[in-house]
């Protein structure tokens, strides 16, 4: 699709598309251990979230997505599940989750949980049984060492296949190319894989019955092995999706997706949208001149998304590259053409990294909340919480030093004047992860009291988006200028101008036809005839007469 061709989305065209609460919603990601600690043990918990639901409703959030909160030895922040049907004691109980879901619904919000489908913890009873019983095939056991294979920790001889860290053994969903000479390469319809598919349905049904609205699926692409074209993995998800559609028609299922590993698994697996969790390509192409290596654990010099310190020498090319990637991603996302674009997430750096603040952050939020994607706000980004490079991990990198993710997982800052910034009443040294130590760390209470704060700006943007159908995800988007500034039309009469750079820029825009533009929100933009002038980091939503 040409960069300036209009984009349209699916709900109207595809009546079986995702429900409007998701398709046009604003998602908010809560990393449970760092949001709010209600009992003073230094770790965030569900009651802490319940206590802060009014704040999320005030902000205008529609959907809360939780990272895994199930029983786990926490070697990878709960992405190593020990019991899918029990909330981790550190976070509370199943009853707390049900109360949270109810309290969120009363405030117009729905809850998505994280389905870790491809692997369990080595502590899961399924794995414990498999590591002692050579006849058990819920996991993949080879009789010789090889890539990704880890020596058996139990009495069973052999090596098990890991899915991510060694402590995360891959559940057996079979191989795309079974081979009887290597008997662990089973077909996808062998008993072990069949039992695991049924188990996924049980887990999904268990939580949907409790009022949960759907799941984000961790590493959705990783299930069937050696499935290069993802045909078998997509077929597996289509089966689960078809079952869900019958049993839970209003629930959503969204895969973790990244361009390299999941070309189109969202579409072909029958998912509701693509969750562009690994977002470095699109994001850095937009605000970082396509710079690669932004992931801290990939050794990025400047571990930043949306790096607006653009190199003037590359002119507007970065935005053109962003649009190319975006359209490819949208096309691969499926009939509903829905892609979730997060501000940042629990795996990479935060939006506010590399000294980014103020209007630069406002410009990025303006883009994310008015672009034709589903926005997902990572807790704390809405106040400009900072990324802390090099902060030692308590989980994850302990098992693989290439991953260092603590810097984007620090406790939420609720009140600058309260102990531990209002996150916890524990002694500071008992906090599971330390707070941003800086004296000027941003906080919710102070920003709520200040109309000129980033938080109030984000709230205003969300409110404008809610009040204006043309600004929502599923409305039409037409890019009018794919350079700096980025200029696009939403619907027929809303104009958005975003300048990711710190230098002022001006562009001639065809398609404005001399229409009068009046400012709804933002600053630094002047539209005169067909000329759009934008100050450094200018951002504006305008309505056209
Ligand atoms: C992706 C998750 O986002 C990440 O945090 C986790 O470590 C891996 N999947 C393994 O589950
Ligand atoms: Ca706690």
In short:
With 545 residues, the chain is an alpha/beta fold.
**β content, as a range?**
15-25%
How does the major sheet shape up? 8 strands, parallel, barrel
Supply the number of helical segments. 13
Instruction: Briefly note the structural class of the backbone.
Output: alpha/beta
Which quaternary structure do these chains form?
single chain
For the residues shown, what is the average pLDDT?
88
DSSP strand count = 19
Q: Please mark out the parts with pLDDT under 50 across 5 or more consecutive residues, or reply none.
A: 1-5, 288-316
Could you characterize the architecture of this molecule?
Helices cover 24% and strands 18% of the residues. The N terminus is likely disordered. It is α/β, with parallel strands linked by helices. α11 links the parallel β12 and β13. The site of calcium ion has 6 residues, from loops. The site of 1-deoxynojirimycin has 9 residues, from loops.
How is this fold's topology laid out?
Elements: H1 20-23, E1 27-30, H2 46-51, H3 53-59, E2 63-66, E3 70-71, E4 83-87, H4 94-106, E5 110-116, H5 125-130, E6 141-142, E7 149-151, E8 159-161, H6 191-208, E9 214-218, H7 231-247, E10 252-257, H8 265-268, E11 274-276, H9 280-287, H10 317-332, E12 339-342, H11 358-370, E13 374-378, H12 444-448, H13 454-467, E14 477-482, E15 486-490, E16 494-498, E17 505-508, E18 517-528, E19 531-544
Parallel strand pairs: 1-2, 1-13, 2-5, 5-9, 9-10, 10-11, 11-12, 12-13
Antiparallel strand pairs: 3-4, 6-8, 7-8, 14-15, 15-16, 16-19, 17-19, 18-19
Bound molecules: 1-deoxynojirimycin and calcium ion.
């Amino acid at each position: 699709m040409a960069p300036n061709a209009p984009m349209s989305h699916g709900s109207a065209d595809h009546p079986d598309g995702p429900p409007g609460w998701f398709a046009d919603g604003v998602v908010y990601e809560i990393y449970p251990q760092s949001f709010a600690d209600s009992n003073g043990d230094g770790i965030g918990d569900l009651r802490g979230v319940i206590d802060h639901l009014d704040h999320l409703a005030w902000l205008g959030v529609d959907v809360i997505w939780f990272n895994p909160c199930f029983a786990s030895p926490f070697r990878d922040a709960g992405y190593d599940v020990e019991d899918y049907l029990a909330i981790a004691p550190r976070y509370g109980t199943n009853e707390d989750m049900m109360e949270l879901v109810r309290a969120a619904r009363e405030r117009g919000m729905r809850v998505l949980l994280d389905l870790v489908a491809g692997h369990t913890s080595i502590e899961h009873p399924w794995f414990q049984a498999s590591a002692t019983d050579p006849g058990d095939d819920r996991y993949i056991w080879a009789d010789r060492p090889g890539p990704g294979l880890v020596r058996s920790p139990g009495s069973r001889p052999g090596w098990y296949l890991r899915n991510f860290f060694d402590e995360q053994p891959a559940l057996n969903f079979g191989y795309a190319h079974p081979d009887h000479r290597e008997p662990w390469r089973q077909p996808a319809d062998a008993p072990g894989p069949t039992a695991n598919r049924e188990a996924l349905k049980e887990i999904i049904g268990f939580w949907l019955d409790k009022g949960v609205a759907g799941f984000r699926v961790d590493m959705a692409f990783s299930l069937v092995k050696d499935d290069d074209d993802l045909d078998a993995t997509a077929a597996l998800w289509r089966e689960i999706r078809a079952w869900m559609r019958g049993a839970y028609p209003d629930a959503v299922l969204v895969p973790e997706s990244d361009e390299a590993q999941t070309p189109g698994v969202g579409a072909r697996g029958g998912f509701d949208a693509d969750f562009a969790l690994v977002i470095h390509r699109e994001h850095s192409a937009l605000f970082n001149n396509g710079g690669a290596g932004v992931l801290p654990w990939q050794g990025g010099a400047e571990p930043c998304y949306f790096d607006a310190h653009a190199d003037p020498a590359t002119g507007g090319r970065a935005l053109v590259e962003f649009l190319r990637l975006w359209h490819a991603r949208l096309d691969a996302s499926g009939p509903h053409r829905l892609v979730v674009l997060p501000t940042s997430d629990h795996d990479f750096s935060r939006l506010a990294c590399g000294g980014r603040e103020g209007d630069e952050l406002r410009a990025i939020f303006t883009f994310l909340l008015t672009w034709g994607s589903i926005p997902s706000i990572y807790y704390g980004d809405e106040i400009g919480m900072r990324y802390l490079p090099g902060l030692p991990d308590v989980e994850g990198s302990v098992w693989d030093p290439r991953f260092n993710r603590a810097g984007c997982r620090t406790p939420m800052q609720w009140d600058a004047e309260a102990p531990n910034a209002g996150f916890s009443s524990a002694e500071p040294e008992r906090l599971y992860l330390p707070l941003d130590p800086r004296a000027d760390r941003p906080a919710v209470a102070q920003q709520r009291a200040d109309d000129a704060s980033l938080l109030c700006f984000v709230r205003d943007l969300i409110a404008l988006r809610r009040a204006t159908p043309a600004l929502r995800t599923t409305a039409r988007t037409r890019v009018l200028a794919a350079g700096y500034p980025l200029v696009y039309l939403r619907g027929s009469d809303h104009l958005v101008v975003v300048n990711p750079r710190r230098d002022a820029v001006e562009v001639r825009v065809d398609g404005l036809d001399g229409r009068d533009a009046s400012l709804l929100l933002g600053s630094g933009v002047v539209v005169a005839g067909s000329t759009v002038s934008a100050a450094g980091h200018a951002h504006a939503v305008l309505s056209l007469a």
